[in-house]
From TrEMBL:
<keyword id="KW-0472">Membrane</keyword>
<feature type="transmembrane region" description="Helical">
    <location>
        <begin position="12"/>
        <end position="32"/>
    </location>
</feature>
<feature type="transmembrane region" description="Helical">
    <location>
        <begin position="59"/>
        <end position="80"/>
    </location>
</feature>
<protein>
    <submittedName>
        <fullName>Uncharacterized protein</fullName>
    </submittedName>
</protein>
<feature type="transmembrane region" description="Helical">
    <location>
        <begin position="117"/>
        <end position="139"/>
    </location>
</feature>
<keyword id="KW-1133">Transmembrane helix</keyword>
<keyword id="KW-0812">Transmembrane</keyword>
């Protein structure tokens, strides 16, 4: 029982559990969208929404720093001693089993010891397995983040290109003009499509709200567009 209590009260076990909880908490905050409709974008941002927005853009460095801190704490709390403790517990478990088979130990007296040793070994093996996979999990998170950012950049670029095409949209229409000799002539004319252009401006505004990195470029683009069309 003392070995079992020593295992479940070991700081590293709870540090690993806390890291897992923190990891899923950050993932939940990142995936949660606090803006339920378009009107909420124009409301005052609360501190919690600012924190969620910051985590969405910096959750990978947060996880990397947390992992580094966890590694330092793991070394501080004798990770190698835990591995040796697992080895010793497995050895004691084998010795107890051998004594029972040889008839040198009573099964009723050794049942609690065997159960405690088995529980302690399983817990420590689980902690060691979790610690071994943390590094690869962090690498997978970093790779997934790069892929997601690359996909988002491509989508934003496509949205900007489509909106820019809409800024130069013209509508073609035909008019009938009467000539001097009394005959009529059909003339094709073009004029700016205001509906499409206004929609493109609103689309660029939406992109600027969603992507802070492209906001300055969109402002410069709209400024040049207004300057050219104001002449």
């Amino acid at each position: 029982m003392d070995s079992y209590l020593q295992v479940v009260t070991h700081p590293f076990l709870w540090i690993a559990a806390g890291f897992v909880v923190l990891f899923y908490l950050v993932q939940m905050l990142v995936s949660w969208d606090s803006s339920k409709d378009d009107q909420s974008r124009h409301l005052r941002t609360s501190p919690s929404e600012m924190l969620i927005r910051w985590l969405k853009g910096n959750y990978v460095p947060t996880i990397l720093l947390t992992t580094a801190l966890l590694a330092i704490l793991a070394l501080g709390f004798y990770l190698f001693d835990i591995a040796r403790a697992v080895h010793n517990m497995v050895g004691l478990l084998l010795d107890q089993t051998r004594d029972i088979r040889a008839g040198e130990a009573d099964l009723s007296d050794s049942s609690d010891t065997l159960r405690d040793l088995a529980h302690g070994s399983a817990l420590l093996l689980g902690v060691l397995a979790a610690a071994a996979t943390i590094f690869f999990s962090v690498i997978r998170v970093w790779i997934n983040d790069r892929n997601i950012r690359a996909t988002e950049d491509g989508l934003v670029t496509d949205r900007i290109n489509k909106a820019v095409e809409g800024l130069g949209k013209f509508t073609e229409f035909k008019t009938t003009q009467k000539l001097a000799g009394g005959s009529f002539q059909t003339v094709e004319e073009t004029k700016p499509d205001l509906v499409v252009r206004i929609g493109s401006i609103q689309a660029l505004e939406r992109i600027a709200e969603d992507s802070e990195r492209d906001r300055e470029r969109i402002v410069v683009l709209l400024t040049e567009y207004i300057r050219e069309n104001a002449r």
